[in-house]
Design goal:
The complex is a heterodimer of chains A (336) and B (260). Chain A has one domain: ABC transporter involved in vitamin B12 uptake, BtuC, CATH 1.10.3470. Chain A contains 14 helices and two strands. In chain A, 72% of the residues lie in helices and 1% in strands. Chain B has one domain: P-loop containing nucleotide triphosphate hydrolases (Rossmann fold, 3-Layer(aba) Sandwich). Chain B has ten helices and ten strands. In chain B, the strands form two sheets. Chain B has a six-stranded mixed beta sheet, with helices on both faces. The chains are: A mainly alpha (336), B alpha/beta (260). Bound molecules: adenosine-5'-diphosphate and magnesium ion. Magnesium ion binds next to helix 1 of chain B.
Chain lengths: 336, 260
Amino acid sequence: MEILNAAVALLNYVIIPATSYAAQLSLGALGVTLVYGILRFSNFAHGDTMAFGTAITILFTWLLQSFGMTAGPLPTALIALPIGIAATSALLLLTDRAVYRFHRKTKAPPVRLVIVSMGVMFVMNGLTRFIIGVKERNFADGDRFIINAAQFRHLTGLHEGLAIRSTTAITVVVAIVVVGLLFWFLNNTWTGKAMRAFSDNEDLSLLSGVNPEYVVKVTWLIVAALATIAGVLYGLDKAFKPFTYFQMLLPIFAASVVGGLGNPLGAIGGGIVIAFSEVSLTYAWRKVFSYLLPEQFLPHGIAQLVSIDYKYAISFIILVVVLLFKPTGLFSGRSL
Amino acid sequence: MIVVEDIRKHFGAFHAVDGASFKIATGSITGLIGPNGAGKTTLFNVVAGHLKPTSGRVIMDGEDITGLSPHELFHKGLLRTFQLAHEFGSMSVRENLMMVPSGQIGESLWSTWTRRREIAANEHALAEKADKVLDFLTISHLAQEKASDISGGQKKLLELGRTMMVDAKVVFLDEVGAGVNRTLLNTIGDAIVRLNKTRGYTFCVIEHDMDFIARLCDPVIVMAEGKVLAQGPADHIMDNEAVIEAYLGTGLKNAKGARQ
Ligand SMILES: Nc1ncnc2c1ncn2[C@@H]1O[C@H](COP(=O)(O)OP(=O)(O)O)[C@@H](O)[C@H]1O
Ligand SMILES: [Mg+2]
């Protein structure tokens, strides 16, 4: 019984939250990795792209709600999501046209594009705050729980409760569907193959008649969708605040580097590694131990390895260690 | 017909191509020879759209194609291979070939959804075509091999194979024979002649092997220090004192001696 309670506590406080966080990070990291694979630079504006897409989605969610339109048990934001994606697509295509294209045509070295993307980041940052403000927003509606702690205790008779929030389930399901679609697209469509070819050998792909501007355009569209979905899922699960999304850049980059920049499968693996490290290192394990260890062996403290205040340090350390010892990422396998 | 009009390509103060003019007649196999550093590859890069010329024009069938990008030239039927063979390293040899025509169709995201059956049929036809090409080039056994794993000479064949996947008009081959053994070189030579005869491909071939050039090419253009030094039938070129002095030296005399 104690073991079961420990397992439930572990599920409830570590595995379930880490899984949904991993799904959000993976979607974010996929966007970063796609830009790196096709446009060949690390896109610092990605966190703020997510924030912009989420902000627009929230605005439309409010609009829909003001008309009394909701998605029933599901969050209304899911109906507003396509609008958010469309707006973000437009923003990214416009940015490409106004900013990146010039540097692409002049064959700028990647480092210049990285710096340029930081400029874009500041602009998007300001734009998002201008549109929706800097405050924290909660926009999740619909059913809160699939099963809550009290129901679970009643159902199983266990002492420990297990809550599965609907946003967690939605996050995981949507992430799986999106990733599945992305891989189907990359492997089975002409455009997807052209993208892979372009990423593999740009010169040769041009010689095969691949239009680079078309590939770049499609890439931005996919990145807009991935970023908005990742941002909205994160916002539903936790809350939306522009600054948090800017901070998310660190774990997202860590995830894509751990997975090997340009490698989509790796981005997912990287997201899982970062999310589970962060959650398990900042979790106070005393509760789980209390079910497993006899009283006299129980630690005096709360058995938390890293304070939650330092959670970004974990991504940072993993990022640095991977860059030092295995800069091509932990996950071998082909890029794109 | 391709007309190269007074092309110049300067890298800073260095004049890699320094006013080259010549014509490539439709249906010909034109040879382009010259010592290392003569500017042959740079000229190819300009003609095939990889580099913008400092000045000069390239005309294809009466149309100015100067400065068009490689993918636009591809759609006009102008293809090239690289001196250092390129390949899609993460794909199999067969997939490498099947990549070629993919840029032509399916340029719209919609068609991916709306024309799925057509695409599947097309995919099948492509695979068959790729297999025929591999057969033609005597490398069928490599079809499933990862393209990054095959030998340098085999990559050269794959490069040639790429040009056979579509109906090209003009193909520029940059040192197809480099790093390729004699037997393979003959295979490549035969393939070039067959493509020229049966499919009407026009070729412009950079090659250092004089036997190969003499057997295949008419006319032959000689470049040195960024300029065209001489052009004409292979025999004339090899007898041209200026050419022998300026570039070919003993290598050519030996080659000629061996043939006589
Ligand atoms: N991108 C470049 N920048 C500077 N110099 C170059 C560049 N490309 C080629 N060159 C120089 O131009 C000259 C001609 O090179 P290339 O066209 O490759 O000769 P070839 O193919 O006839 O051997 C060489 O001296 C080479 O170093
Ligand atoms: Mg060369």
